[in-house]
Fold each of these.
Amino acid sequence: MANAPSEEVAIVAYAQTPCYRAYPEAEPKMIMSLVNQILDEVKIDRHSIDFTMAASCDYLSGLPFAFVQNVDGYGAWPPVYESHVEMDGAWALFEGWVRLQMGDIDTCLVVGSGKSSPGTPREIFPLQMNPYYGAPLGIDPVSLAGLQAAALVDAGKATEEDFAQVVSRSRRDALDNPFAQVKKDVSVEDLLKEPYFAQPLREHDLPPITDGASAVLIARADKARELCDKPIWIKGIDHRMESNNPALRDLTDSVSSRIAAESLGIDGASFDLAELCVRYSPEEVVLRQSLGLSDDCTINKSGGPLCGHPVMATGLARVAEVARQIREGQGQRGLAHAASGAALQQNLLCVLEGGA
Amino acid sequence: MARQQCAVIGIGQTKYYKKLDVSLDGLVRWAAQNALDDAGLEWDDVDAIVLGKAPDALEGVMMPELSLADGLGAIGKPIHRVHTAGSVGASTAISAALLVESGIYDTVLTVTYEKQSEGNATWALGGGRSGSQGAGGSFAPWIRNYITKTDAPEHIGWKVAVKDRLNALRNPNAHLQLHDISIEKVKESPMLWDPLRFLESCPSSDGAAALVLTNKAGVERSGRPAAWVIAHQKRTEFTMFPGRDTVMVKAGVDCAAALYKEAGITNPRKQIDCAEIYVPFSWYEPMWLEGHLITEEGDGWKMTDEGATEINGDFPVNMSGGVLSSNPIGASGMIRCLEAANQVRGTAGEYQVDGAKVAMGHAYGGAANYFAMWLVASEPSPSF
Amino acid sequence: MSLKTTTYTLEYPYTRTTGPVVGRFLTNLRDGKLIGVRTGGKVICPPVEWDPETNKTIEDPDYVEVGPGGTVKTATWISQPTRKHPFQEPFAFALIELDGCDTPLLHAVQASGPDAVKPGTRVKAQYREERTNAITDVYFVLEADATDQYIEPGPGEVEMTEHLISIDFEEIMAPQRLRFIEGLKQGKFIGGKSPVSGKVYIPSKGYDHIERVPMDESHEVEVQQTGTVCAYTIITPVQYYGQEETEPYIRCSILLDGSDQVLGQQDIRDIPVDEFRAGMRVKAIWKSEAERDTSEIDNRWGGTGACLERWEPIDEPDVPFEKFSEHVF
């Protein structure tokens, strides 16, 4: 059970790096540029930020303690109050938001980063599976996405054309996103001509390999109004988990997203826009249905992770995107979603609204 | 809204040992079930779970909250995983406390662990390459500098090593049960990273520790002894920069100062009854006594030497045997916080400090650049 | 100019104690059987240690043999297997409803093509000749393609399973690291001088984290060949998988003249321990140009690869402790 938050917290600034195929320098440098960008925009000193939450995953770059170097990027001298989750930045945002609920500090900087380019993700991610029953079989997220897609098609809940439509729309929308990595105008018909990769998925149904980072600065009520003209209010954050064993889950439904939505008391139909962590095209079909998003809701105007997937920053980038879209007048109420684990094992929802 | 009160009402641990014959699920469930039983609660009573552990490469399991979710009863619940290197156990306890203090969650289960028998800690700490100096190799030069700076006699480290292992004999969970430990034995043990000898260094352990944290209403409902979390702080600094003091680490000094200020403590040595401090290598006891403002700079070794940190001294340190006696890295920081809670609840058995009302749990990590500390008390709002 | 890369492999043979339940499952696999556990009225395979409904530990597990046949529930044909997959030619991952079991098993099916593995297809477990007490000991084929196997039961109970995890990485060398390496090849120590503080970092990381500014080749400086030992320890090598060191050696940090940051991970094997001390003055003695080897240097770890022959004490007074005590790391 989760109780309603008592403090008003808003996003006052956000920043993303471009989605790089391979960032040519050290990860901390990527982070430093984002943090400087936010500090410059909001015109505050690094040390006036009360709390910092970092997010990254050592296994992406194959170095135990890699995250320690990232401290260089977000600044820690004189010493700072900070913590780190080995998860996507959206979960760092969750902890930062929870911390601000205590009412004694005003601001939190949240940074998520990752370089997927050095390794082969399909060979690393199986280590998220059960170490006895799953990991030794090399069960990777692409294969599980294929299984999820097959389950959807078998159940009559989606067609291959539905998947291709998600990809076609996303890539076209990405043409307008300066941060996106993969962007092109490609028709559903052309996409469907491609060979299968993890049937019924094709290579374009999978995310690119990306290096990147994203950051947001959040603040409590009056502080938020002081730091920016248009605070984007976080109305709630909730996240829920499902079984690690895909055999025990209904892959055609996102049960944990439903639970999160219910806990937040939200009606999916109330959102003007949404940024969903669609790493594989069938995930959009599942999430749209599970969250009850209306047909009028604009989904992944940024192109979403299918067009740029900086692992460990992707979920936080969705939050940054919703904030940006609301600020730029594309809607008043938006839903940001983050996922962790293969085939949407764990899901986080963040409700954002414009207004004073 | 004001900060909600938060207390530990359940404590659970595994036995700590070189190799435990359990699966990873079995390891974390062992501690978690013990904590729930102690709290008088069921799995269903848990609103959120916080998991913590050190590098994934120690067990070769990536983002273990995903594969442990089922075993930890996390299905349908929020669960997240903290990682702040060696200090992770304490950071995790603090993250869990935040969930309650924020008012968002009522009852939180937090678990930390390490199953070092599956991999190799020195290998992991060296990034999987040959020539790893390990943690001891990194800290030894700074210890040497402390000794040079303070002119401390060489036996101080040995004294700490003996004290903590003798304390461990009172703790049935502790990994090392060295019945014949003595100054001579420590002094004669092989040198690992000069000046640190084998018996001045922590073991490599399997183990898990868990806490159940709840708010005031939860404490009243449970009827269980409570260790109230009265303050917690974390501080981080860069690992390397010109002018970095690796003995009186600024992040450690700042963290302690902030902790005491938050609790209203002005004289930590007198107002804190006992402490569980992260001492993986013997000399870190005197170093942290200074580095966390318990005594004057340069006097830490004297406090140790005069017996102040013995279990019946005026500032007992590591009554449970400490990290020197059990070190499942991911859990060690939480074990410090947990043992502090044991003390103020009066549940520390054979290593109970009589009348302990305020206790400190502490951990550090990385290149001694991460610090996480908490203070627990037998009352929710003690005044000093 | 091509971007130089550095490669490394993270590899370890993990040895996992299984506990009784996973152990029993793997023991049966070794002996050519699949088992589940009955709990809460259901048979679950692979067996779990707790009841999924109540979360309580199953005190006295009731193991049940399941399969070897089963029906495919869902399948996906993998056209490009990874090196970690059970097969290196295309195959299917499938959710298999084993006979006698209430939960599907996620495993691999070997077949001629995607059309052969569909919902409803009957498959059967087969066991590998070489079994290693792991989930990979078993795999599935179409029922029609299955052969009868006689598996001799092994001795005792499986209590440990091994997983050799080996992952390769190839990363672009950060520009300032590359310059540092090029410098080493030329017998020079190349660092970077902060445009804000003027402090010299070696090797440069491409930024000054204190002043929060990026740095590049325009900030490059060369530092001197002489320096002061700031801190050291004597390492007795721990024997672990991949370790190549066997004899104790000194590892120290040296503050080169002109630098504000120490050069770490300098291994000393030819100055006697009783002559070695913090504060002593040393100079770099290089290997011949042809022998300098920078292959071990990557984006993160310290050291100078195998470019230096040794550090030689120089005849200058030791530097007092206070002067270098803040340049230890």
Amino acid sequence: MSLDPATVRRIAKLARIRIEESQLPQLERELNGILGWIEQLNEVNVEGVEPLTGGAQMALKLRDDVVTDGGISEQVLANAPDRVGDFYTVPKVVE
Amino acid sequence: MSYVIEGSTGPWEVVIGLEVHAQVISNAKLFSGAATAFGAEPNSQVSFVDAAFPGMLPVVNRECIAQAVRTGLGLRAHINLVSRFDRKNYFYPDLPAGYQISQYAQPIVGAGVIEIELADGSTRSIGVTRLHVEQDAGKSLHDQHPTKSYIDLNRSGVGLMEIVSEPDLRSPEEAGATIRKLRSIMRYLGTCDGNMEEGSLRADVNVSVRRPGEAYRTRCEVKNLNSVRFVMQAIEAEATRQVGVWESGGVVEQETRLFDSARGQTRSMRSKEEAHDYRYFPDPDLLPLVLDEAWVEELREKLPELPDDKRARFVREYGLTAYDAGVLVAERATADYFEQVAQGRDAKQAANWVTGDLFAMLHRSGRTIEDSPVTAAALGRLLDLVADGTINGRIAKDVFDAMVETAEAPDAIVERRGLRQVTDTAAIDAAVARVLAANPDKLAEYRSGKQKIYGFFVGQVMREMKGKGNPTLVNEALKRRL
Amino acid sequence: MFSLTLAGTRAALRAREFSARELATAYLAAIEALNPRLNAFVTITPELALRQAEAADAALARGEAGHLTGIPLAIKDLFCTAGVRTTAGSRILAPFVPPYESTVTSHLLRDGAVFLGKANLDEFAMGSSNMTSAFGPVTNPWTRRGSNARLVPGGSSGGSAAAVAARLALGATATDTGGSIRQPASFCGIAGIKPTYGRCSRWGIVAFASSLDQAGPLARTVEDCAILLTSMAGHDEKDSTSADRPVPDFAAACARSVKGLRIGVPTEYRSDGMSPEIEALWQRGLEWLREAGAEIVDVSLPHTKYGLATYYIVDPAEASSNLARYDGVRFGARTEGADLTDMYENTRAAGFGAEVTRRVLIGTYVLSAGYYDAYYLRAQKIRALILRDFTEVFRKVDALLTPTAPTAAFMQGERMDDPVTMYLNDVFTVPANMSGIPGLSVPAGLDGDGLPLGLQVLGKPFDEETVFAVGAALERAAGFSALPGIRAGMEQ
């Protein structure tokens, strides 16, 4: 699988990271290098193998339905780069 | 008699699928211990997990899972004992982690069915494809500031059930009926309060059109409809739009749209222009959800009676018509009220009073049955007073009005206002005699054949007796004298 | 004072040979003197450390010494520490002050430890050299014989390892996702263990690759690591992947005999290009264990060679999702933009370094529509095969012995041209993360340049005790006593 500039741009958009045009060639090279190296995995026969999901082979524990958290708006807002009153803010979105 | 949109080239069928998002009734959120109550101060019901701070991890709330299972059982659906949480990745300010924890590949509930009744009395079975649990997003406010949108994460992480229907619906009415029925089932089960104005129940509709007999054409999604009325209007508006596109030689593009209720039209959602690539993958912070079969059975056993079963039982046990029973079971509180009134009494009478006078009064005063000034016990007592002849039906209505106004017990009102029914035949006979004597010309008319004047005499006698005459005895007396 | 191990210092404190305050003061002075050269610490916390040391002295005076009372530690800057800046080695978190304490560090605080500061690391724990930190690279306190060239300490826990090796801390917390504890331990001549996945809680640790990340200690000796791990480990309800198992007495396990244990040697770990020195050290390690009464068995882990490539699909995929929350809205640095998308793109471009950007993009790609089956799903299946290999092998043996890294520490700036070259550092360590099993690196010898080389012990899930026993036996036999040129207590 080889990436072309358009694909790199599309992925960068999905990942919300700005990539300058000047960075594209090197990035494309590096990413293709990594992906090319990963191609070796196609050799492996995975017929009938169940994928491993997660590193822990245990039962999922469930919590009781009790309110144990929240009511900490100051702490939750303290690190916000642009806070107005009790709200986080972002540049205005038009839907 | 199916629903069609009449285009310039002929009729078009509408194909509709529903995606309903129902907020789970629970104390705490799906993956965090913050509270879920509506209307709190902004960002006051937010834990670090809900705000996706570095290093935070989700822990599943058992009650949210139980609510999803109960709803699935209420939809007669298959419960998947093993299900999985997946991440749905996209960027939006009300989605703090940049992904929503949902269920994609293996939902907790599989195929089920919703039975709906339409206005013409027909019924249909609407297929449910699946139900899964997922996190709700926070709220963005776009009108508080000229250049900024405000973000409140109180709702972020509240448990949602997403219920997807098969594309079995063919009209706005069917869609409306399906949402109403689903809402009723969840209210019965106590799994969602179905309050569309507050946003605890939201519907997205997938709409496409086709000429009768054709295969499916491209569909569009209309999102965030927060009333049944808007759902129905949006379907019609969107279907009409699509017919217009096809008939003018265009092609309907798959897209997401919003309903502008003021204009009665749908419009494209600008922020969703790009096709979303959600990159679903199993959430590595959670393990597969494995339900104990015995636990599911326990939930099943403890389920309250569902609306359809209750309606059937009302018809069977109380001899009500399907229609009356249907009206009474629409809300569980109403059904419970009715049953309390009907216990040991004439069920038909009870049904008439509840669906008639009680409903009218509640509607007039803008109240719900939960805060009715006349309790089921009090109404039952009123019916007893009619049944044992203490008062007649006409007087009972006056007593009811007085009960609404003063919250007094019916017995007290009857005594205080001297409303006891008169059963003294001598007194009745005397009243009849007085009325007939006072209206000789009407009497003559009646005796010459005008049967209809009988009603006039009844009315006059009742007035004479201040409404308290026993109707049966009044009729007997009148017939004797006429 | 600096020549004492953690265990030795603990005993000395309890015997009141010196106070916790004296100890903390000495370590802080050493940091002040040497950190400018090594850059092992991103943030130094002298006031906090002295306050904690004073509380420790009060507890010691009352006779209420806890498991780690008064012991000065470095905390990898990936662990959220309440009220103390936590950067993850990234510009995007440079201003972040967590209002909560990670579970692992809260255990250490509960047991009376003293926090000297936050240790440097590769940005978001992505790297094997500590060259990608936004706060500058870390320098290995070891140098090649006759050379002044700066070497890497390994990564991503390079700061933690350098601090311990240079005796700027008695121990350090670290995390290991693909070898980030074990490889730096090997490069810096110290011990380090990645416990079984689920042994330590991940709550409050900046997430990188959720199914692989695991916290663990770095310290001078195997016993020191065992003491620290005892404190760090334990079930946490707030982490759904945390194992509900009691924490054994790991330190006691270090004294266990290895007589009768079967030690596996995986054939596939022997590669054609393996350096003769490492091959020789490996053989020596096997000999030491034989002499201690263990039986050496040849075993096969057929899917070994696919471990790295599999890792470099799973790790970026999970990371791309875990790092989506760094968007300038609720915490961290923000760069403004004309609209929302602009703001996100600017913030993340300014905040993420090159390696992080590469991994997020690879991860986004392998999860994207049309590629999920070919990459991520396939990788998770191969991962299942890797686990199966280990499960089969552990029916026959109790532990495995392998080298920790293919080379000794390399120069700063080396291996940076091609990302894949850097990734190859992890070839021996990655399988333990993919399968979740515990792995310990023990300093075993020096190479021709006088640089430390480590040997790795791999064990069964939740059998860290056997791993510690074998590791301690190796340590005793190796008698590794060399010290780096740059360290506290040395006149420089």
Amino acid sequence: MIETEALIIGAGPVGLFQAFQLGLQDIRCHVVDSLPQAGGQCVELYAHKPIYDIPGIPLCTGQELIDKLQLQIKPFAPAFHLEELVSELHATEDGQWHVQTNKGTQFKAATVFIAAGVGAFVKRGLSLPGFNELMGKHIFHEAPNSSAFKGKHLLVLGDSDAALQACQQWMQGPEAAASVTLVHRRNHFQADPQAVDAMRLACEMKSMRFVVGQPTGLIHAEGVLSGLELMNAEGESDILQVDSILLCLGLSPKLGPLGHWGLAMERKQLPVNTESFATEASGIFAVGDINTYPGKKKLILCGFHEATLAAFGASALLRPEQKTPLQYTTTSTHLHKLLGLS
Amino acid sequence: MTHVVSESCIRCKYTDCVDVCPVDCFREGPNFLTIDPDECIDCAVCIPECPVNAIYAEEDLPADQVHMTKLNAELALLPTWKSITKRKIPMPDADDWKDKTGKLSELIR
């Protein structure tokens, strides 16, 4: 059990800036995110796309913004718990919050900052009967080892660079699959055009094949997968023989467990007051795209403001006997000390 | 405010958008997808997913598409228009229709 004054759920730009503002209040924090890296949507969806409305930064990409925020919070060294999805949150008897992740990490936190954006990014699966039973045995999000598909009839699902790379990897070499078939629901790819050309060439060389289709059924008996039923664009059904399926379907944000924590929600968002961005549950704050209040605008820079006031709110809550003075990072020796400057 | 599917989607239904929606607010008709404005949280994640750029924030709709806000809301209430949360194969002649404009008369309720 990790005991902490503050826990931040979500390592997007607002979650990261929350760590900075808590740091200025001398509140140490832990940060949990479902993705393997910090950055949230900024990195997952907009890594190389431009952002023009961050104050003082005329232009940066999503990734650049996250890199700068990481640098900014470095003095406070928040502890990151990546690739973990917060599954449970409930109040403890002594007025704190018990938080648990899907990997079993447990926290007892005096304050919780929900900076979950549009929810957690989770790997897409297949909503077909038998999927859960076969997952990890015959269906994978990534190869469990470098010879996992050796001699197997492998289906790769998806249209990303990762999907095409997987085809290249498994169609040749000493660990090659018996056959590699790429399946995507249309003959158009998100992947780099060069990778697509290489894939088409490999198909011409009969090193692999590409099939357009939408998976409609898994054929399996006693936990062993033998085929994938597909529907093609003409609505006809076809069955592909298969031993293993590799899913490269990317990520999809889902509100997930957050909806079941018993917090008051309004249109799947958390209502907050605009003095401290606290929710109605004492000690729980919501910042960024996940919250709602009159006049709410889903902008990163608004999230920064919200995180700032939430940190003041947390300070008042955690240290009621102590005044929370407003200090400037330009002149305050106290803040300089916290920032490791003196 | 809400996000709105414009006429570009008619007879295409690429369905890339439905998969990313965190609140499952898309509804599917015979040849068009609509957004339920009571469910949409304006997260904008769906906008870049659409291969024909059919989705707009309400206030960003092109002038010739503003009628789609009302139509989206209306269609979302039809009992036969069910929630769609997983991608599927686009309509068979989607690629032929994707660049056509003025498709409103093609809409099947």
